[in-house]
Design a protein that fits this description.
Strand content of chain A: under 5%
Shape of chain A: globular
Order of helices and strands of chain B: HHHHHHHHHHH
Low-confidence stretches of chain B: 1-38
Low-confidence stretches of chain A: none
CATH topology of chain B: Ferritin
Largest interface: A-B, 80 and 71 residues
CATH architecture of chain B: Up-down Bundle
Largest sheet of chain B: none
Order of helices and strands of chain A: HHHHHHHHHHEEHHH
Strand order of the largest sheet of chain A: 1-2
Largest sheet of chain A: 2 strands, antiparallel
Shape of chain B: globular
Distance between the termini of chain B: 34 Å
Number of strands of chain A: 2
Helix content of chain B: 40-55%
CATH superfamily of chain B: Ferritin, core subunit, four-helix bundle
Oligomer: heterodimer
Structural class of chain B: mainly alpha
Number of helices of chain A: 13
Structural class of chain A: mainly alpha
Number of helices of chain B: 11
Radius of gyration of chain B: 22 Å
């Protein structure tokens, strides 16, 4: 490696050229501070979402109604922990530690996807989360596989593959329940009624109210606008809902021949903003749960550190 | 409408798309639906004939005992999900819970296949497979698990000690069970020993780490060991069904693995510099313990939660 002084303008020019070529920025490459900060914010939010997202589904592990479903659910929630791990690792390549990020989350200074502030109230929610929530997450995330920052894009490739598996498992649970009893079908419809609008909110506010989109797109961190992705998700979900035999709870939903897309209504953005501000139905519980686990684990992490230090000392 | 036409120029990371976007416009992510899991037989491909000279009810009850240990222990460990001290441990504990759940499913299915009369009778039209009927429609007193498995979760030291005691004992048993005259038990054990060796290793590492970590971690570890130690001797009691199963070559007499298990445990205690506890064994009720269906109060509560959805929808399809 040669250490030659490169002028800041030249570094910036090289960075811009890499972005323009759709090449990857790697951890040791020069990057603008704003780019680094935006990435840390986005990757951390994403990692936190995986970890907080373990709770709503984890809520049903102890009540899964068959041994097979219990294994599927447990493995899925375990995968989410794994996704959190990859993402925290990607964030660490930008110079922040998992512990720091966790503390920012617990202090309310970093966010996670507001979808996880909705409660899971029946076993059908396990399927609906797989179908709609993981489905929406995939629409958001597939473009991130080609995001400009290398470690993030590579983590996303693996995550998307596993998420697609989860999505199909969720849909399969719902199709199975729809073949069951009348109560089970009602349970599925009720669950879809509760999760449809929150799933649409997962793409973020409408483009005209999304302050970070333009810069993120210019930097190649984000590749599609919120409204583009939302449209894609609606278009994809309508035939799936028909195949399932459920009604999506939107009276404005209809095919628009001229546009070649479905028209649809808007979610309640005031409710969305309440969730973002911390006033959603389960925000307090989700953070309290994470804080309790983090604090109750402190003595264990301290013990591991002390033991490792002693081993290293003894081996000297 | 076709999302593919909107995509920017191909790059090497298109592999992500090629795995996800496969010739089906409705699914942006993945082609075929998940294969139907119903009618899926956990024992498919195994010879489930009861070996000659073996009493079928004995084999079934013995398989229930081993299966219930796994079912209940798995449930307790699964309760750790999203609660572990660190992500790595959350993942490791889920792994252990998943392995034991897999063992439970096979063993309960084996019990049902050996003797259908052990399976609770469900309302007509219930599609629940026999292993689910056994897991979700028995009462606490019908479960045959050792009491160590059912204890309410404590702190991470408690989990460490419990998994260590359980897996040291179970692995010692399963090493012998591999040569069971019953093909199913032998196959389950052959797969299970690898899993249990991992569980034992995981718990033993944490046992030493906590014992040698900080004064606080050592204090907690010793407290957990003292609390669980009274349930250790029960693991080596020989129930008449276990004696009969061992006699006929399908099972293992727990008393026969005591020395091997104690030797392994002593190694861990030595490495951790932890003295053997001296607390006396926990009594049963009129001499009856877990294997007899006599449990603590916590098991009923655990089952009430675990069985709630299945029992609310006995004709449900899952």
């Amino acid at each position: 490696m040669t250490l030659t002084e490169t002028a800041p303008e030249e570094l910036e020019r090289q960075f811009e050229a890499t972005i323009a070529r759709h090449d990857r920025i790697e951890p040791r490459d020069w990057m603008p501070e704003g780019y680094r900060k935006t990435l840390v914010r986005q990757i951390a939010q994403h990692a936190h979402s995986e970890i907080i997202g373990m709770q709503p589904e984890g809520n049903w592990i102890t009540r899964a109604p068959s041994l097979r479903r219990k294994a599927i659910l447990l493995a899925k929630v375990q995968d989410e922990a794994g996704h959190g791990l990859y993402l925290y690792s990607a964030a660490e390549t930008l110079g922040v530690s998992r512990l720091e990020l966790t503390e920012l989350l617990l202090a309310g200074r970093q966010k996670y996807s507001s979808i996880f502030n909705y409660p899971t109230l029946s076993y059908a929610d396990v399927g609906t989360i797989g179908w709609l929530v993981d489905g929406a997450a995939i629409c958001n995330q597939v473009p991130l596989c080609r995001t400009s920052y290398g470690p993030y894009g590579r983590a996303m490739i693996r995550i998307c593959k596993e998420e697609s598996f989860h999505q199909r498992q969720g849909y399969e649970l719902l199709t199975t329940m729809m073949r069951g009893t009348e109560e089970q079908r009602a349970m599925v419809q009720e669950s879809v009624d509760r999760f449809w609008w929150p799933a649409l909110m997962m793409f973020g506010p409408p483009d005209d109210a999304s302050p970070n989109t333009a810069q993120s797109m210019a930097w190649g961190i984000k590749r599609h606008t919120n409204d583009e992705l939302r449209q894609k998700f609606v278009d994809m979900s309508v035939p799936q809902a028909e195949a399932l035999g459920v009604t999506l709870p939107d009276p404005e939903l209809r095919w628009n021949e001229e546009r070649g897309h479905h028209d649809f209504g808007q979610p309640d953005w005031d409710e969305f903003m309440e969730g973002v501000k911390g006033n959603g139905p389960c925000n307090a519980e989700r953070i309290a749960h994470r804080r309790r686990a983090h604090e109750e684990g402190a003595w264990v992490r301290e013990a591991a550190t002390a033991y490792a230090a002693r081993q290293a000392g003894g081996a000297r | 409408m076709n999302s593919r036409t909107e995509r920017p120029a191909e790059d090497e990371h298109d592999s992500a798309y090629s795995g996800l976007l496969v010739n089906d416009a409705h699914w942006a992510f993945g082609a075929a639906p998940v294969p139907e899991g119903h009618g899926e037989d956990p024992l498919a491909g195994l010879d489930t004939t009861v070996p000659a000279g073996v009493d079928a009810p004995t084999l079934a009850t013995y398989a229930l005992m081993l299966g219930d240990d796994a079912l209940v222990m798995s449930h307790r460990i699964a309760e750790w999900t999203s609660n572990a001290p660190d992500l790595e441990d959350d993942i490791a504990l889920s792994n252990i819970a998943l392995d034991l759940l897999g063992q439970a499913r096979l063993l309960l299915a084996r019990a049902a296949r050996a003797d259908a009369s052990v399976v609770p009778v469900l309302p007509e039209g219930s599609p629940a497979p026999p292993e689910d009927a056994l897991a979700y429609f028995r009462e606490a007193h019908e479960l045959r698990n050792v009491r160590l498995a059912e204890v309410v979760n404590g702190d991470f030291a408690e989990a460490t000690v419990r998994i260590l005691l359980f897996s040291v004992w179970r692995l010692a048993t399963w090493e012998r069970l591999r040569s069971s005259a019953d093909h199913v038990l032998a196959a389950v054990a052959a797969k299970g020993v690898k899993e249990l060796a991992y569980h034992r290793d995981y718990a033993a590492r944490w046992f030493v780490t906590l014992a040698q970590g900080t004064p606080e971690s050592r204090r907690r570890l010793l407290a957990a060991l003292d609390a669980l130690w009274p349930l250790w001797p029960e693991l080596f009691d020989t129930h008449p069904v276990e004696a009969a199963a061992a006699e006929s070559g399908v099972g293992v007499d727990p008393a026969a693995v005591r020395d091997a298990a104690e030797a392994v445990l002593d190694q861990v205690l030595d490495a951790a510099d932890v003295p053997r506890p001296s607390a006396p064994r926990r009594a049963g009720v009129l001499g009856r313990t877990g294997r007899d269906g006599m449990h603590g109060e916590a098991l009923g509560r655990m089952l009430a939660e675990m069985q709630s959805v299945a029992r609310a929808h006995p004709r449900g399809v899952w």
